[in-house]
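The passage that follows is intended for readers who have already worked through the single-chain material. We present the inputs for a multi-component assembly, then the predicted structure in tokenized form, and finally a short commentary. You are encouraged to pause after the input and sketch how you expect the pieces to fit together before reading on.
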Amino acid sequence: MRFLREGRAQTTLILVGIAVGVAVIVFITALIQGLQSNIIERTLGTQAHVKVEAPDEVNLRAPLAANTTQLVLETRRAQRLRSINNWQRVMAALDTLPGVKAVSPVVSGPAFARRGNAVKSVALVGMDPVRYQRIIPIGDDIIAGSLRVGAGDAVIGRLLADDLGARAGDKFRLVAGDGRDVQLNIAGIFELGVRELDQRYVYLDLKQTQSLLDLPGGVTVIDLTVNDLFSADSVAARVAQLTGLKAESWMQSNAQLMNALTSQSLSTAMISFFVALSVAFGIASVLSISVVQRTREIGILRAMGTRRGQMLKIFLVQGAVLGFGGSALGAFAGYGLVWVFNTFGPKLFYIPVAPILVPLAMGLATLTGTLAAAVPARRAAHLDPVVAIRYV
Amino acid sequence: MSEVREEVLRLAKLRKSYNVGLPTEIEVLHGIDLTLDRRDFASLIGPSGSGKSTLLNLLGLLDSPTAGDLFLLGESTRSMDDETRTARRASAIGFVFQFHHLMPGFTAIENIMMPVMVAQGRPSAETIERAWLLLAAVGLKDFADRRPGELSGGQQQRVAIARALITRPALLLADEPTGNLDTKTAADVFALFRHFNREFGCAVLVVTHDPRLSEVCDRTVELVDGDLVSDIQRRR
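Having made your guess, compare it with the prediction:
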């Protein structure tokens, strides 16, 4: 085994090569994972994982009489704001559905906010603060006043407050059409960091919103969060199947984002694969050279009674040791890079390194090293000792 | 030593051809008959191209004959597979080459134990003791921790001889062991061969170009163009 100690310069070079490769893999993987979880976290910080809504209204057609043909010109129906039928029962059922973490009924619809001469179009969100906070922790983003809805209180976004020239404690008026309007007190101002929401959302309690939107006792949306983010699709499908309602997962509503994430993961995998490939070629070439350089020694060892199997093992173990040692260094360097990025980088987000990543990369590198050593090892094992001894 | 003749090696009509089946097929050895016993200290001489090295490779089980058979310690080697031949080679034959072929990364004492280490891994206490004994016998007791690069040519060759004997082989094969040593050192090496031949009852066959050295041996076998032309015994 001490065979390896010869040619230290070469061994050092290839160790550094493997280390760089593994460091790149560890860093890139950690970076992309960090980036992706950050993006998902930001996206879902202001969104439910699954939205359950009433199904679209469609035209019903009378059955045809026998032996008649019918020409149809169908105009799609305008979708009015409707409540989910029997939503209390639906919600109770969803509460017990496995994989679902939180359920929150919401009434939402359009309105205008007026204060003085300013008129702004807003989205009303009527909710139960306790349940709603389990979906979106709005309470953490209150910058003025407090999260207090109901009984003439509302919570509005910071940009809307700016537009209305209002501060916490000021009054404003909501106009929901058909003469339904109400005077409200701004109990709190929130800032979610998403322009669209900070400019348009007005949080009320369920009852006020129901009466403003003329949906007494109804809710328009049931928001869900799920335990496993990426199971949202299957949970949505199951909800749709169980209730006959329209259920949309965050993956569907953010299809483009998902698409971007998937291609990003794919390109990371490609980079990792090709880096691993070049590391493998590096190991293979160093060991091939080493076999040629040591032809005579191999011949002697064979003449002294080293079996082919032992010869094979020596070189396979060398490959494994190179892979293991190099990846240990590389994992260390990768950690270093991540640390540098977290400490001195743009600080846009923090990269956590999954603890599994290091043993995984090392295991993979060791395996790659062993596989890469296979070809030179076979050559060494099959050298004819007679030829090998006379080799100069 | 006892006078019982104990057969170590017997060749029966041994033939070797190269490029078998090709138009360039050439027979190098034309049916060699030869017996070596434990007491033999023999030299193999012959002009270059006579087939000495080929014969030595066959004797050392490094190569297999085209026809005929080779009996090592009474056992036919004709139908042995590579594993078995390697095992026999490890247990019964010691090699000394023209170049010492020591492992550059290991000390003298480690090089001597190398054949045992490749066979069993860690050397046993007994092996270590024997290695020191052999090192003393070749007069290099003070050089145990030197690496081959730090030894002179004669010293390297003496380490190589000690290495060849660590497994207590029945047969020691040497291919031009003194080819690149001066006369005085060469004579010392031959004296060592004789010493081990008597001490361990180990048959020694030395391939050499030097007629003066071959006369030191008890027996000289001459090979010319693939045939044994003479077999001189010098009993003393």
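Commentary: Chain A has a mean pLDDT of 82. The beta strands of chain A are 50-53, 100-115, 118-127, 142-145, 153-157, 171-175, 181-190, 201-205, 221-226, 246-249. How closely did your sketch match?
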